[in-house]
Amino acid sequence: MQSILSVSQVSKTYASGQKALEHVDLEIRRGEIFALLGPNGAGKTTLISIICGIVTPSSGTILVDGHNAIRHPREARSRIGLVPQELSVDMFETVAATMRFSRGLFGKAPDKAHTEQVLRDLSLWDKRDAKIMELSGGMKRRVLIAKALSHEPDILFLDEPTAGVDVSLRRDMWKLIGSLRARGVTIILTTHYIEEAEEMADRVGVINKGQLLLVEDKAALMKKLGKREMDLSLVEPLSEVPAGLEEWHLSLEDEGHRLRYVFDAQAERTGIPSLLRKLGELGIAFKDLDTSKSSLEDIFVDLVEKR
């Protein structure tokens, strides 16, 4: 698939000596949803700010749809919409005027049809003449997205888009992101809500301490790194894992009523048949058996801890 954004060997060291990014390489495919995951201070916002021309990199190259973002920032920036974490609007301005002003900043002629469509998609049309200061926190977040979409960008950055919003609004925004992708917009989001990445993203990148640890297709990542768990609900509770079961590294859960076995589903031998036989030999009876796979959050935490 064709690349729309290319980041090559990008580093950022501040005057204090703090290294925010170290030799980051990243290719974003046209039309995909890419989730960038990382703990606080990992470098997510710094990377986005550099791509969007807000922060100057110490070294490296960035191409936005073929345009060098450092040498030709205006051409590159015109293809990008940015929804920042913090509110960055005039609170005394109306919703519609904010969107029109932002569109004008990019040299775009007024387009009433486009403005109306975006505001309707974001459930803001009825609030178009309201001052932003009169809106709820969730509605203000929608205004930020409308502002970012005002000039019809090819790439949309969402920096923690649902931080501080309720579950209902979060779901609405997920639907909007899906509809934007269907129209061909490339979407890059950073998030602490890993279920967002798990639900929406095509690919996932994990960043920590300024270094990009990996970039993988979401499905391939979960298949390759995901573990499975088998829980055995016991007929009689145990006070400790019995001798003879050491090789399976079992854990007791639910005050001894449950035995948990974590295994690699991709391994040639999972160890389950031999475990069940051993339990029978030891006279440990169970009344139910349940298996589940690791979530993306489990994989993310494991990766960051290992590095």
TrEMBL record:
<dbReference type="GO" id="GO:0005524">
    <property type="term" value="F:ATP binding"/>
</dbReference>
<dbReference type="GO" id="GO:0016887">
    <property type="term" value="F:ATP hydrolysis activity"/>
</dbReference>
<dbReference type="InterPro" id="IPR017871">
    <property type="entry name" value="ABC_transporter-like_CS"/>
</dbReference>
<keyword id="KW-0813">Transport</keyword>
<dbReference type="Pfam" id="PF00005">
    <property type="entry name" value="ABC_tran"/>
</dbReference>
<keyword id="KW-0547">Nucleotide-binding</keyword>
<protein>
    <submittedName>
        <fullName>ABC transporter ATP-binding protein</fullName>
    </submittedName>
</protein>
<dbReference type="InterPro" id="IPR027417">
    <property type="entry name" value="P-loop_NTPase"/>
</dbReference>
<dbReference type="InterPro" id="IPR003439">
    <property type="entry name" value="ABC_transporter-like_ATP-bd"/>
</dbReference>
<feature type="domain" description="ABC transporter">
    <location>
        <begin position="5"/>
        <end position="234"/>
    </location>
</feature>
<keyword id="KW-0067">ATP-binding</keyword>
<dbReference type="InterPro" id="IPR003593">
    <property type="entry name" value="AAA+_ATPase"/>
</dbReference>
<dbReference type="InterPro" id="IPR050763">
    <property type="entry name" value="ABC_transporter_ATP-binding"/>
</dbReference>
